[in-house]
Design brief:
Strand order of the largest sheet: 7-8-9-10-11-12
CATH class of the largest domain: Alpha Beta
Strand content: 15-25%
Low-confidence stretches: none
Radius of gyration: 21 Å
Distance between the termini: 29 Å
CATH topology of the largest domain: TIM Barrel
Number of strands: 14
Shape: globular
Helix content: 25-40%
Number of helices: 19
Number of domains: 2
Largest sheet: 6 strands, parallel
CATH superfamily of the largest domain: Metal-dependent hydrolases
Bound molecules: zinc ion
Length: 401
């Protein structure tokens, strides 16, 4: 039977985003949607010749840049769509070399980049000077996309934290910091930090997520740390009386987090809040253990689309088992809004992509009901704004009010 249904749902509470990073990078030019290389070249060649520019949204699957092009470009850092990699023009390298010799020397090495991923994000954020009104600009743009609350999974520096703290948006975020940044903060700033962010593997786009089988090109993902090193990092983070959030994408990474958490609990270490970020691949037995340990899964319905976008690099099993929401909810017992929460990672921001991917995903295991979506991804009520979702002919359309 055909027909349309209209649902009115509250604005989004995006549990995994990068408020500081995206606010700082918000006015940067982007190659997202620039599909022809000639258009990309024109855009980059028109950038400022004297000061450093950061360009976002580059899909290296669409086009690459030659060393000759990089030599003649203005000073520019061109950042991969997933943020898991960038290239620098020769002039950008010359500018950054005195202050960041290690990064200029190593950023092209994928493994090095992944091992230093949090630092690379922080480096990019620090390449863009903060300016007045940046939080307002960003929050207003996000409201247009139906988002009210924007969690910050990786604080780059103390000044942006203080800007958030003293803005009218302080209640519309929660801020996480990696151990290095956390320790660099003064006592007062530390009180504003919700928790410590750790990483156990890379990303699918960069083929560095710790999935068990090789990617189609033969490259293999890997864990960033031994169990011992992760154990110590998680124990240290809890000793700060903060929440702990661990990035884990591949099934080896999610299994490691659960294994190490079991060990920590056996040793009497308690977590006030332990989150696993992304969790795109997790075996059912591991999911059941994670549930028992009280781990909160923080996942991105929009990443269900990786099953299409990354069909060039992942075997069929991975396409069919990415974001296994039905297994997690129906079999392992996770409850949206309680121990299963949703966010976007800003890829892309907004209700439209999230709803379409949640309600009409590539594979049945990825499907969420509208009620599950609301429970895991929306503000508790409609007072901050509402999104009208019209579902018609097997497709969702949103209309922000
Ligand atoms: Zn993230």
């Amino acid at each position: 039977m055909s027909g349309k249904h209209i649902f009115q749902i509250p604005f989004l509470k995006d549990h995994h985003n990068h408020l500081s990073l995206y606010s700082l990078l918000f006015k940067c030019p982007s190659l997202q949607g620039v599909l022809q290389k000639t258009d990309a070249l024109n855009m980059i060649r028109a950038l400022d010749k004297d000061s450093l520019s950061v360009v976002l949204g580059w899909n290296s699957g669409h086009y690459d840049f030659t060393s000759i092009e990089l030599e003649e470009f203005p000073p520019v850092i061109i950042v991969n769509l997933s943020l898991h990699g960038f290239i620098m023009s020769k002039k950008a390298e010359e500018i950054m070399k005195p202050s960041h010799p290690e990064i200029v020397k190593n950023y092209r090495n994928t493994e090095w980049y992944e091992r230093h991923f949090p630092n690379m994000l922080i480096f990019l954020a620090n390449c863009v000077p903060a300016r007045d009104g940046l939080l307002t600009d960003f929050f207003q743009a996000m409201e247009q996309k139906g988002i009210y609350y924007i969690e910050d999974m990786l604080l780059p520096n103390e000044p942006i934290l203080n800007a958030i703290q003293h803005s009218s948006y302080a209640q519309r975020t929660a801020i996480w910091a990696d151990p290095g940044t956390f320790h660099s903060l003064n006592e007062n700033s530390r009180t504003f930090i919700k928790g410590i962010k750790l990483f156990t593997d890379g990303a699918l786009g960069a083929r560095t997520a710790a999935i068990r089988k090789p990617f189609k090109d033969g490259s293999t993902g890997y864990l960033l740390h031994s169990d011992d090193v992760l154990y110590r990092a998680m124990a240290e983070a809890t000793s700060l009386k903060k929440g702990v959030s661990v990035h884990a994408i591949g099934e080896d990474a999610t299994a490691q987090v659960v294994r190490v958490t079991q060990q920590l609990k056996q040793d009497g270490i308690q977590f006030s809040l332990l989150r696993m970020e992304h969790c795109q691949f997790i075996m059912e037995s591991v999911a059941r253990e994670a549930k028992e340990l009280g781990i909160v899964l923080s996942m991105q319905p929009n990443f269900s689309i990786d099953s299409i976008d990354y069909s060039d690099r992942m075997e069929q099993w991975y396409l069919e088992n990415n974001n296994p929401f039905r297994m997690l909810i129906d079999n392992a017992g996770f409850v949206p809004g309680e121990d299963l929460i949703f966010g976007s990672d800003g890829m892309p921001h907004g209700a439209d992509a999230a709803l379409n991917a949640a309600l009409f995903p590539p594979y049945p295991i990825q499907k969420l009901s509208i009620d599950e979506f609301v429970a895991g991804y929306c503000m508790p009520d409609q007072s901050t704004g509402v999104i009208n979702v019209e579902i018609k002919d097997n497709k969702a359309f949103t209309d922000l009010k």
